[in-house]
Protein 1
Amino acid sequence: EIVLTQSPGTLSLSPGERATLSCRASQSVSSSYLAWYQQKPGQAPRLLIYGASSRATGIPDRFSGSGSGTDFTLTISRLEPEDFAVYYCQQYGSSWYTFGQGTKLEIK
Amino acid sequence: QVQLQESGPGLVKPSETLSLTCTVSGYSISSGYYWGWIRQPPGKGLEWIGSIYHSGSTYYNPSLKSRVTISVDTSKNQFSLKLSSVTAADTAVYYCARENWNDKGNWFDPWGQGTLVTVSS
């Protein structure tokens, strides 16, 4: 099982600032199999990034993904009020999926 | 546009079987894709349960495999989840989602709105 560890657990920032979220895997992950989701309270997760760096349809270009091997990053270049939420990374390997525990992005 | 909707009992007794159905609209399951179930205990993270292809081929999370059965009914454009011998630890919001894959990887999109299932006597 590949364990994904996200950091920090909580990130406190202000609108307009840059957010950097980390996802570290216990074993190397093919960069093709790393995705990021955003989840707001009471809502289902929403796909942001797949293939480590490809934005999903309709996702603003302030969201970007990068990384390879065991270290991946989600960057939000300039925070908008609607970006404050919980973010999850997800990997697929050896015929099963695992998710990170999430990073809560809160308004400072 | 593809939409998914979960349905089923919101309360299940311990040791019984949890049963949920996901109805897909805007896309025929018979046309392809894997379709998956993911759950989220209150206040916690996401856990993939398993997935099914329109042909009936399945694969499951090894930690749940002994208790999980996922099936598909293409005539109703639905797929279903059964989780046996439930305990309070199975209390969660259960989501269904379409599983996508290409040379860019594997991911879930879109998702249903989710349904809360509570295990309690």
Protein 2
Amino acid sequence: DIQMTQSPSSLSASVGDRVTITCRASQTVSSYLNWYQQKPGKAPKLLIFAAFRLQSGVPSRFSGSGSGTDFTLTISSLQPEDFATYYCQQSYSSFLTFGGGTKVEI
Amino acid sequence: EVQLVESGGGLVQPGGSLRLSCAVSGFTFSNYWMTWVRQAPGKGLEWVANIKPDETEKYYVDSVRGRFTISRNNAKNSLYLQMSSLRAGDTAVYYCVRVEYCLSTSCYGINYFDYWGQGTLVTVSS
């Protein structure tokens, strides 16, 4: 199976900060990489698909980049509603896998 | 409006069985791959299984293969997960999720999870 490793596992930031989360795959996943946001007690929400494509309705302060094995999710200016846990997920293999998550805290 | 509503969760003893259901509306269910994703308390997300629209392809994470069965009824707009030989490690919130495929030529074939249910809690304990 393809292992997905996110870093950091948690971070502290302030409103207005630029935040970067990385995701590394154990083998190439091409651009088959998606990002989700999850708030406590809620279902995850799709932010980015196919490495850098913004899901409809998602604010433009979210962006994704990368291909192959190394990917990045960037929040250009952190807003109060962005404090959450973020997960990457590969869909290159029929056996799908998620990263361990990155918790963004105040 | 797309809706996915899970049901069937609850408390079950180790070794027991449980069947989860997911009722969907707001889209043509028979056109979409569907997936179950779970999340143990305080832990991350884990993909469990997915199923092709015509049920000709099904995939499972290693930890549930042989114990869980994913199925669907396109006439009833419903997805199911039959779980047997349940273990404490299966305790989690189980989400029903729609799989969407990118149709743009620049990302054709790349799939992602675009709609999620609210989840149903399965607790395996004596």
Protein 3
Amino acid sequence: QVQLVESGGGVVQPGGSLRLSCAASGFIFSSYGMHWVRQAPGKGLEWVAFIRYDGGNKDYADSVKGRFTISRDNPRNTLYLQMNSLRAEDMAVYYCAKDLGVAAPPDSFHMWGQGTVVTVSS
Amino acid sequence: DIQMTQSPSSLSASVGDRVTITCRASQTISRYLNWYQQKPGKAPNLLIYTASNLQSGVPSRFSGSGSGTDFALTISSLQPEDFATYYCQQSYRTPLTFGGGTKVEIK
């Protein structure tokens, strides 16, 4: 079955950096677009970034553009999110999510990981 | 950006009730609308995609409708496991955006 396992969360000071990873299994990782979605404590869901199945197209929310970078390693079935210049408002649970369609534009979040917690605090 | 507005933000209902949650987009999004269920401490779960398509494994008491700017998620007979928060999400264009959520509580 489809499994997504995030790691790399933790406590970081404002202005610091963190790299999140998402290990995928149970599906052909190289055929699907992937997303990062976050949820601040007690708040709703916010889409963060998308990467096309082949890594050829990336898209970001304005709130993270220029600070976060999404990437993928298809042979390793792993998705990444490099987060730089972190701010208090970036504190959230970060989920990786598999898109529904094969080789399709960003659409819906078919399957989700369990999430990894990022805390930004001095 | 396309703004998604859900109503109500919360509701109280009893087991067996018919429940409808609405979602309005700030511009037309055709049928590019998805619905998710989230329980406390858990990741969201896709219920409905492209406005009315039931995701595999989701009970048939869930249904979606609408097109253009106005959409609805209906639970035909509320079950104890359905008490959760529900989110709509548009996939018409990026940035993909979510509604603010509707919390369904036990009356």
